[in-house]
Amino acid sequence: MKPHQVGNTTLVTGGSRGLGRDMAINIAKKGLDVVITYQSNQTAADSVVSEIKKMGQKALALPLDVSIYENYEPFFSDKLLPALNNSFQASAIDYLIHNAGQIAPALFETASISEFKDMIHMIKIKWPQTPPKDDVYTHCSNQ
């Protein structure tokens, strides 16, 4: 594996459609390699990957349900890090756009404790033991 090149790899959660798709494609236009996550629509995710690869950038789609907190650690250790090594010859991501989420079932000010915890959970990222070496930028949106 070659040494990590700072500033080359971006992870976009929810990158198969909507704002996430648009961000992933525009990031690739800037010359960055992109890993996207998707919850269930692999066909849409594969379409984004294909479009990015046509631009000459590396791209990969990995499944991740961000609503299940316990998915984060195995996602990073068992899926993302091996994929970075195998497909990108990289050891870390440089940028994160955390776009995936779910629409909150209640308004912030009227939410029950359980609903409030769900809202907070959707914007919290659990990193593996070794976080990225550089700054990670987070963007959250409800589509």
What does this structure look like?
This protein has helices spanning 18-29, 42-54, 72-88, 113-122; strands spanning 9-13, 33-38, 59-63, 95-98. The chain has 143 residues and is of the alpha/beta class. It has a four-stranded parallel β-sheet, sandwiched between helices. Strand 2 (33-38), helix 2 (42-54) and strand 3 (59-63) form a beta-alpha-beta unit. The protein is globular and about 45 Å long. The protein starts with 8 loop residues before the first strand and ends in a 21-residue tail after the last helix. Mean pLDDT is 79; it is low at 1-5, 122-131 and 139-143. This is Short chain dehydrogenase. Pfam families: adh_short.
The CATH class, by name, is Alpha Beta
The SSE order reads: EHEHEHEH
Model regions low in confidence, pLDDT < 50 over at least 5 residues: 1-5, 122-131, 139-143
Quantity of strands, as a count: 4
The CATH superfamily name is: NAD(P)-binding Rossmann-like Domain
- Strand proportion, as a percent range, falls in 5-15%
First and last CA, distance: 38 Å
CATH topology assignment: Rossmann fold
Would you tell me the structural class of the helices and strands?
alpha/beta
Mean pLDDT: 79
| Multimerization status | single chain
CA gyration radius, whole angstroms: 15 Å
- Main sheet: which strands, in order across? 3-2-1-4
Number of separate helices:
4
The CATH architecture would be 3-Layer(aba) Sandwich
Question: Looking at the structure, what is the overall shape?
Answer: globular
Fraction of residues in helix: 25-40%
InterPro entries: NAD(P)-bd_dom_sf (IPR036291), SDR (IPR050259), SDR_fam (IPR002347)
Organism: Olivibacter domesticus
Family: Belongs to the short-chain dehydrogenases/reductases (SDR) family.
Pfam families: adh_short
